[in-house]
Amino acid sequence: MWILVMFDLPVGTKAQMRAATKFREYLLDEGFEMSQFSIYARFCSGKEQYEAYVRRIESNLPEKGDVHILGFTDRQYENIIRFSGQRRGRQRRNPSQLALF
Predict the structure, then answer these.
(1) Across-strand partners of 84?
(2) Are the beta carbons of 42 and 28 closer than 8 angstroms?
(3) How far, in whole angstroms, is CA 8 from its chain's centroid?
(4) Where are the domains of the chain?
(5) Average per-residue pLDDT for the chain
(6) Which of 20, 44, 72, 86 has a beta carbon 3.0–4.6 Å from 50's, enabling a disulfide?
(7) How far is CA 88 from CA 81, 85, 92, in A?
(8) Residue 24 phi, psi dihedral angles, 5° rounding
(9) What would the pLDDT profile of 29-73 be if each residue is shown by its tens digit?
(10) In this predicted structure, what is the pLDDT of residue 38?
(11) CATH class as words, domain 2-88
């Protein structure tokens, strides 16, 4: 399963910019990778882990702005079509297995 976090946060003041940066850094620290500037994705091992990430994200939300969280199955994620410029990007693959050292 995949979790996709999309957000639109205000950055009109220095405090709002700091809050937006803090939220982006939080997502990176949680293992998300940036897909686009305000879209971050991460692989989850199942529904329980997905729900745990949703709860943790909820407890770290900035005071203002919009955050949307989507869940995708592995098959749905593999079927995403990506374009970079005028060229079709290669299809993303799901991680085969997590290795812990």
Answers:
(1) 87
(2) no
(3) 13
(4) 2-88
(5) 88
(6) 44
(7) 8, 8, 12
(8) -60, -45
(9) 999 999 999 999 999 999 999 999 999 999 999 999 999 999 999
(10) 95
(11) alpha beta
The tokens describing 52, both together, are 């745990």
Tokens of 69: 């969280």
**Vertex 69, ends 63 and 75: CA angle to 5°?**
165
pLDDT for the residue 87: 72
Q: What global pTM score does this model have?
A: 0.81
Nearest to 40 by CA among 87, 6, 15: 6
Q: Which two tokens stand for residue 85?
A: 């410029």
Structure tokens at 22: 């803090």
Structure tokens at 62: 């900035």
Q: Does residue 69 or residue 86 have the better pLDDT?
A: 69
DSSP per residue, the chain: -EEEEEEE---SSHHHHHHHHHHHHHHHHTT-EEEETTEEEEE-SSHHHHHHHHHHHHTT--SSSEEEEEEE-HHHHHT---EETTEEPPPP---S-----
